[in-house]
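We treat protein structure as text, and this decision shapes the records that our systems exchange. Such a record has a labelled line for the sequence and another for the backbone structure tokens. The record that follows is passed on verbatim for readers who wish to inspect the format:
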Amino acid sequence: MLSSELSTSEYNQFYHTYILALGGEVKLIDQLVDGKDIFLSFLKDIPQDKLGYAYGPGKWTLTEVLMHIVDAERVFQYRALRFARKDNTPLPGFDQDIYVPESNANRKTKEEIMQEYRSVRESTIALYKSFSDDVLLRMGTASGSGMSVRAQGFVICGHQAHHMKIIRERYLS
């Protein structure tokens, strides 16, 4: 499954930024697997003293951004599972601004965040490896819009890439 095979009818335009963050033609499973290693290496290299940094008033700390990536992947993975299993119940959106403070991110160590991320991503990889090509094409509704299982997978990868760019530009520069 290549990113070029996605149709814009398979996801809400809001998610197009995440698809573009992938930087071009990628294979879904490769991106999930390689993205795990890239992100863990990226996390390992973040200086400890930067974890509590927020680049402005009311902005999330770097640790909160990292936990947002983990939480969003959990939500997106759940959506993919529901769509894959032909559950046609429309799923609501999630309010990231409620999730972030409730994640208690600022009380977690970098190692705890890395382990949590690793567990979630390995679960995502196992789930996506279980999907046939037909299942990847299945559609569901989340946040009032249609989304295919495969588009949700690319969104997972692109959301991570998008936030890595923000972290580099606003937290680590």
About this structure: The helical segments are 16-20, 28-44, 62-84, 96-102, 110-129, 133-136, 149-171. The two ends are 35 Å apart (CA to CA).
